[in-house]
Design goal:
heterodimer, A: mainly alpha, ABC transporter involved in vitamin B12 uptake, BtuC, two-stranded antiparallel ribbon, two-stranded antiparallel sheet, B: alpha/beta, Rossmann fold, 2 domains, four-stranded antiparallel sheet, 26% strand, binds adenosine-5'-triphosphate, binds magnesium ion
Chain lengths: 347, 272
């Protein structure tokens, strides 16, 4: 490694220098994973996998997951975890469906209400984590169950069922829940891409991103350096809970109905996307592009399996093995990044 | 002798029922190194955490340039020119040198309607600041801090502390866990800071390190000032005894040697 770095000259402009620089980035493993999976399913899924329908199916899965996975990843980079998103997705769906479906109130009341619920739960998570110093896994496990219970309880109390229908007006549907391009691609994909760009700016280009990394690297030192670590932690929890409520809200509008259950898969899926994307579980290292690629990889495996001759049950095996490989690979690349010394031989 | 930049007047600190510091009074002056000595748990780190705004005193006052001040946050102390490199801290292993250097004070530039982190400026300044302290091996601000040696990291933390216009530099055991060469380097940095006219508070467990840079020595024993003297007023043996919490090192050593002589060269078993 040092050999290629040294040979590549001071500016590191040759091909091998650029490859070395790429491998030292957090998203190196995720990029290999994405490319690998796309190739794998193109080979085993054949032309079926490359169709518009197939592309749409994995992108639709990736969109919802990605909007949640990125803030989860930011929390993980900052050294925290949020698993309450598992009940925030149905909570967002049910809130908008009960307000605008069951009660028939305007959708422009239901949508902010769903998002507001996300803000409130995020505040509760964040404040509890900051004030009590209880690990965020436990705090958000508590809110995961509490919110699930609340949603189920209120839903049965108010509507008498666990599933509520909602018909959103055209404009709301156009913005939050409809299919475009041959009626196959959810508008959520656009939200996902926009969110990804915004998060790239936030984490990698704004100064606040530096604070997130510093917090995950060493919380005490970060606080001593003058960073408002508590406020930033709370903001990140609000982001993740609100994002999950947003996805739930969009799904209710898209499918014209909301269910109490069905959000739990987001917990593990988002963590998988984040870890495959090269974020260090213990914090301090990762990238938005990596999480984006991790999400794509997950979605491709999740949906691509339908286009192969394999039984769909194998997709869990692939995801499990991929997760382990990704962690091992990311550890290797991170060590390379740590040991990297430019032009070592010259001095 | 110049007036003190920073002083503690009768400062005590308790954490709930635990009294850690009792009635501490001390002063630091520009261009002078104050060595804070004492056994493990004597309260050295707690004392400097009060000076750097991490903790607030339970009673007593902090004075800067003769006026009473309060530091509610580390930021407040830093804004007044108190730069601290805490024990076990100060750098972020998985961050680049440039980013780590500017944590909490990132340089930004305009990019369209947005303000973005100015990586080039950050890297240039960080690398230059570290090189000014003689660490010429560092020339790429994109390198990760975790790949640096202990001495280089310490130099980075000190350079960072000094860069933001510090008047008082506080170093909590900067030479612990360093090899002889790297420790020497840190000591040289301390002397350089002193030459630039800073007041330095230096904590160490090594008598030689203290004696090589210290102008003024304060010894804490169980949270109280047990001795306060200037360079040349005490011998190395006396300082060692004070640092060990008042026990006579010489008699302790004699005891160990006596034990070893009567036990075929084996040292005594550690006491529980
Ligand atoms: N936040 C806290 N809460 C309760 N007790 C504390 C706290 N911080 C420090 N102490 C106690 O105060 C005493 C002094 O600790 P301090 O860290 O200041 O010692 P020190 O002189 O720096 O020791 P060392 O040389 O080992 O670094 C110890 O007994 C410690 O347990
Ligand atoms: Mg200490």
């Amino acid at each position: 490694m040092t050999e290629t770095a040294r040979m590549s000259g001071p500016a590191g402009t040759s091909g091998s220098g650029r490859l070395g620089a790429l491998l030292r980035r957090p998203e190196a493993g995720a990029l290999l994973g994405t490319v690998g999976m796309l190739v794998f399913f193109t080979i085993f899924g054949g032309l079926g996998f490359l169709t518009v329908a197939s592309t749409a199916s994995w992108m639709n899965v990736a969109a919802g997951l990605g909007i949640i996975a990125i803030p989860i990843g930011l929390l993980m980079i900052a050294g925290e975890l949020d698993i309450s998103v598992g009940s925030m997705v149905p909570a967002g769906s049910m809130t908008v469906a009960i307000i605008s479906g069951h009660y028939g109130l305007p959708i422009w009341l239901g949508i902010p209400a769903a998002l507001l619920l996300g803000v409130v739960v995020g505040l509760v998570n964040g404040i509890l984590v900051v004030r009590t110093a209880v690990p965020s896994f436990i705090v958000t496990l508590g809110t995961l169950f509490s919110v699930a219970g609340l949603v189920l309880g209120f839903s049965v109390l108010i509507t008498g069922t666990t599933s509520v229908a909602i018909t959103a007006p055209d404009l709301a549907k156009a913005i939050f829940g409809s299919f475009y391009i041959q009626g196959q691609f959810q508008v959520l994909i656009l939200w996902w891409l926009l969110a990804t760009c915004a998060y790239i700016y936030f984490l990698h280009y704004s100064r606040y991103g530096n604070w997130v990394f510093a917090m995950g690297g060493d919380k005490v030192s970060a606080r001593n350096a003058g960073i408002p670590t508590e406020r930033l932690t709370i903001v990140l929890f609000v982001l993740s809970a609100t994002s999950a409520a947003f996805v739930g809200m969009c799904q209710a509008i898209l499918f014209n109905s909301a269910q109490v259950s069905g959000g739990q898969s987001y917990i593990f899926n988002s963590i998988i996307a984040v870890v495959v994307g090269g974020v260090l579980l213990t914090g301090g290292f990762g990238s938005v592009i990596g999480i984006f690629l991790g999400t794509v990889t997950f979605a491709v495996v999740n949906q691509g399996i339908y286009y192969t001759s394999f039984d769909r049950n194998w997709s869990s095996l692939i995801i499990g093995v991929m997760l382990l490989l990704a962690v091992l690979m990311n550890n290797t690349f991170r060590k390379m990044a740590l040991n990297y010394t430019p032009r070592k031989g010259n001095r | 002798m110049s007036a003190p930049i920073l002083a503690l007047r009768g400062v005590s600190k308790s954490f709930g029922p635990i009294d850690v510091l009792h009635d501490i009074t001390l002063e630091v002056r520009a261009g002078e190194v104050l060595c804070l000595l004492g056994d493990n748990g004597a309260g050295k780190s707690t004392l400097i955490k009060i000076l750097s705004g991490v903790h607030q005193p339970t009673s007593g006052t902090i004075e800067m340039d003769g006026r009473t001040v309060t530091f509610d946050t580390p930021r407040a102390a830093a804004d007044r020119g108190i730069a601290t490199v805490h024990q076990f801290g100060g750098t972020f292993p998985l961050m680049s040198i440039g980013r780590s250097f500017f944590v909490g004070a990132e340089p930004t530039k305009r990019w369209g309607p947005l303000r973005i982190y100015d990586r080039r400026t950050a890297n240039e300044i960080a690398v230059k600041a570290v090189r000014d302290f003689g660490i010429t091996r560092i020339d790429d601000g994109d390198r990760l801090v975790g790949g640096l040696s202990g001495g280089e990291r310490q130099a980075l933390a000190i350079a960072r502390a000094l860069h933001f216009g510090a008047r008082v530099l506080i170093l909590d055991e900067p030479t612990a866990a360093l090899g002889v060469k790297q420790a020497t380097h840190v000591l040289r940095i301390v002397n350089e800071a002193k030459r630039r006219g800073l007041a330095v508070i230096f904590i160490t467990h090594q008598v030689m390190h203290a004696m090589s840079v210290g102008d003024h020595f304060t010894v804490l024993i169980r949270g109280a000032v047990a001795a306060d003297f200037r360079k040349g007023e005490k011998t190395r043996e006396e300082i060692t005894d004070l640092m060990a919490g008042g026990a006579s090192m010489a008699s302790l050593e004699a005891e160990i040697e006596g034990y070893m002589a009567s036990h075929e060269g084996h040292p005594p078993p550690p006491h529980a």
